[in-house]
Amino acid sequence: MLLKIEDEKQRMQRLFKATVFTVLCCSLIPTSEMAQARAGCDQNELKTRVNTTDRLIAFRTALSSIHADSKQLAAFIVFSGDAHNSEYPTKHDKRREFISGFEGSAGTAVITRTQAALWTDGRYFLEAEEALDCNWVLMRQGEPGTPSIPGWLNSVLNASDYVGVDESLITHYTFTLIQGSLLSMSNKLELKAINSSLNPVDTVWRDQQPAQPKEIINALDVKFAGISWQGKLANLRANITSLGAGAFVVTSLDEIAWLFNLRGSDVEYTPFFLGYAVVEPSSVRLYILDKNTRLNATPTDDQTETKLHVHLNTGVDGACSSADCVQVLEYNLVDLEAYLRALAETTIVLVTYHANYAVYQAVKNNVTVRSSPIEIDKAIKNPTERVGMKNAYRRDSAELVKFLAFLENEVKSGRDWTEVSAAQRLDNQRKTLQYNRGVSFPTIAGFGSNGAIIHYMPLPSTNKQITTDSFFLLDSGGQYLDGTTDVTRTMHYGNPSDYEKECYTRVLMSSINLAMIKWPQGQRGGVLDTVARNPLWQVGLDYRHGTGHGIGAYLSVHEGPGGINVNSNSDPALKPYEFYSDEPGYYEDGKFGIRLETVVTAVPYQTKYEFGRSGYLQFEAVTLVPFELDLVDFTLMNKEQMEWLNNYNSQIKREILPLLGNDELAIKWLNDRTQLINLRQIFGLNSGSTISCSWGILILSLIVVVKFLQSSFCRT
């Protein structure tokens, strides 16, 4: 289903207002005060901080040599992504990480001639504070008093100054919004798109910058993909025509991999390869690095024997002259821009809001901008993908059960286990599973206070021993040919306080609330998000992240376009057979973190009544790993939540127990956590259940009979 362009524009504008580019109405905290407020900045004492002094000196030297319209740049914006707006850029493209020392996946750096600031969201406040040295000001995005990027630049630069950005590393829509915001302010600053060859980060990094990856690209067999690439291409061409366009430029790496049933390993944690595609009614062009070598290389995946040029029905040199094959060309933005400029002279070209500014500029004279006609087709899993995802989650869940049983036994026996050693052990166990192709993101293993860092990644410098004194949060996942997994469980191997148990229970209640909900088709994720948070809100608790994100099928662990979070009221509605995470949490800085993540899929639900004939949906659990019953205060839960938990535990025993083989430790661990809750014992005879009601009627009837017999006996 395609979105109207008006809806997409409104969505982007709302997102824009909700993020770093908003000019907040509150008074701004001076940059100098923000810098002074950072802990340890007198001596830069935190050992986790990266010294960026020399890098910033070299950066500013490079910046001084860049001119736009014969005028020197006064500042430069460094985004986290690559030319494809990827969540996980290649090592070659981690420019913001290099220049700032902050490794989190979300963040934007802004560097002037004298100052440096980094914006990030609530997931990364603690991590950024510990990573950024005292050359940097940490801008806590969304917090009161934190300026937007345009607002801050307006306060520190002079009137009419130029701000630079790499034209290939910013989306055209974001460029337009920032430019408009800067020009609307008192200093009338201007944003200038700079050719990527002049990027000052690359100038500084050049000698050590990793090369662009050129790993082998493998075909994904239709037994995993479900639909041939020819079938997907035919459907896409029909959609392009219906939108009134004559060509579509595909820039997102996950869409390229999905469209052509190809998977690579250029990008860490995701099976993607760097590329662009241009789809036309009678031709399709695919741009990749080192095309001749890769077209003819022997596959590295043992599940395919088909070389790339055979899979794409093209020549060994990438030549193609029909609509039934793919013309393969060398990955080069300059060549792509030249082709697009010529194409736009005669054809309306469709690009998405995620396309980079350089691509947009090449077709700006004859362009239509919309959400991608691929993204929703990709998000709605076909029958083969649905079966594959469930199979992948069964295997993955069983292996996680084995690991958690092993780790608990080790820790309670007093053996030494750390965050790093636990994460490495789990990663290695996953590698042994059928169809495994690595992890889907860096394993998050946080003990105690490290668990409060929402996207914490254990490092030797921050590594903690896992003991019985606090919570241990474990968020992990795998990439499989038949699916992508993501699961979080939180354990406590000692004696938690009543408060800690309440926190765990309320997070579990939030997770169950989302898992139980039934809703009419057409609803967006924001409605569901509030239902999940309610058990935490009731006592004044909350979490600084969304409740759920989409998940790909052997693609990205974070997949659009839908989501379940407070901002997703502007996203497309949730649709049948999309897969989402269900992951509420609670975090206390410096103490502990709790997160429970279960992947679910939306499926049709038959209601008793039918208002509006829209049809209803419900979630079906796909992750099958039990929760920690010893951490649950059942007095806080209602009967429906407990019934859901009983049904979930029964499903786990039914589907996962047979996969544990002779692992007695894992079998006992699973059985202990899937015991059924005795609802009659907790709620008594007036619970409202059919069984309780029936027994009540029977007992009442027996009392009446006994009284009658006693009365009759006495009369005789």
Automatic annotation (TrEMBL):
The Peptidase M24 C-terminal domain, residue ranges: 615-676
Transmembrane segments: 689-709
Creatinase N-terminal domain location: 69-182
Keywords for the protein's UniProt record, in alphabetical order: Hydrolase, Membrane, Metal-binding, Transmembrane, Transmembrane helix
GO cellular component: cytoplasm
Record flagged with keyword Zinc: no
Residue intervals of the Peptidase M24 domain: 389-600
Record has Translocase as a keyword: no
InterPro entries: Creatin/AminoP/Spt16_N (IPR029149), Creatinase/aminopeptidase-like (IPR036005), Creatinase_N (IPR000587), Pept_M24 (IPR000994), Pept_M24B (IPR033740), Peptidase_M24_C (IPR032416), X-Pro_aminopeptidase_P (IPR050422)
Molecular function terms, GO-annotated: metal ion binding; metalloaminopeptidase activity
Pfam families, A to Z: Creatinase_N (PF01321), Creatinase_N_2 (PF16189), Peptidase_M24 (PF00557), Peptidase_M24_C (PF16188)
Family classification: Belongs to the peptidase M24B family.
Designated name of the protein: Xaa-Pro aminopeptidase 1-like isoform X1
